[in-house]
Description:
Blueprint: H1 2-26, H2 36-39, H3 41-47, H4 59-68, H5 71-92, H6 96-116, H7 123-158
Amino acid sequence: MHLFLIQFCILFVLLIGSTLGAWYEGSAILHEPWEWEYSTPFSQIFNGEVHSSEQISQLDHFVYAAKFQPTFPIFMVLSSIYLIILIGYHFFRYRPKKFAYYLSLWGIIFLILSVLINNSPTIGGQILFYAGLLCGLLCLGTSAIICFRLVHLDNEVRFR
Length: 160
């Protein structure tokens, strides 16, 4: 339990710090109107076409940071993924079959999200694509290993 709390607290602080860093770096979009058409998807959903910096959503700061200054957004994504897996492991550590399902679900979600940003022409988008792809495959692979071990263990018990 102590190890879980230590990891959780460290990851939570890392997530908050990287979120603030990404938000700050992404605020540069307010001063680059030529990028508003391409880097403000949330503002365009909420307000239509963006004509002034007051119309830009705070969420678009993260989009801009992810595209052009991806260090903090990568830390955000990786710490979020680690937190998701850590919390799932904490709740399902004595139920490995449910943990395998949990990992499978998140693996599929990570793969879908990475495919959505697959065609990004920016280095940040490509890094996030590969990070999502890798995390999705690792989650699915770990889930498959857990299921294989459960089946193998079940077969050993049955044939004794």
